[in-house]
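Usage example:
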Amino acid sequence: MKLIDCAEVLQAEVLVPVADMEIDIKVACGADLMSDVMAFACSSNEMMLTGLVNPQTIRTAEMMDVKVVVFVRGKVPGDQMLDLARDKNICVMSTPLPMFTACGLLHDAGIKGKGE
Amino acid sequence: MKLDFVIRGSDFINAGEASSGTKKALTRLGISPKAIKRAAIAMYEAELNAVIHAGGGNAEVEIFSDHVQIRVIDNGPGIPDVELAMQEGWSTAPDIAREMGFGAGMGLPNIKKNSNDMSIETEIGHGTTLTIMIRF
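Running the assembly step on the lines above writes:
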């Protein structure tokens, strides 16, 4: 599914775009605990949904090769975090949807989770 | 190639910069993405441990033709029981680390999982040196 279409499904505002908003997103994970993202998340996550807003969310995404971070529950990170994401070439979105609903809509649209 | 980094204690804004710098260097050298990811995850966990538990420290990275060796050295309180610290779920992380999404007790086990070799030298009251080797 194209990244730009993921944003539409999630009714998300794109806070940090990337050059190619048509990249194909196949796999995602949802977590507020970065320890678990590092330890258990799928090795090929391209999108991470989280309600945790701090710079280490972007750092974790960088280490895990996550291309897109979606903040759920309407959370919007500050400029410092957005600048960090720009520097790391990581797309950032904010959706008003809660985590469960956001993950469900993406799954319905064909995005897979770990082990699927 | 040798890289040296300073890790500042309790600095959750810049925590991860050493691992990021190492990841960039490995990428520039054309190392396989899988090996880079394992190195990045292992080093990031180790860097966070130094930030969270030890008041910071240093990271020394040596990149060879077929592997990378990462040493994270701190002068923190040391690890009283390494066997316990290696158990998944065991954590002494303070609230600030948990607020950042860490402190689930997965750090050392995850470092071991992502490395080909890992050793811990620790002395109570003097500090800890964690050495990680990842083959390409």
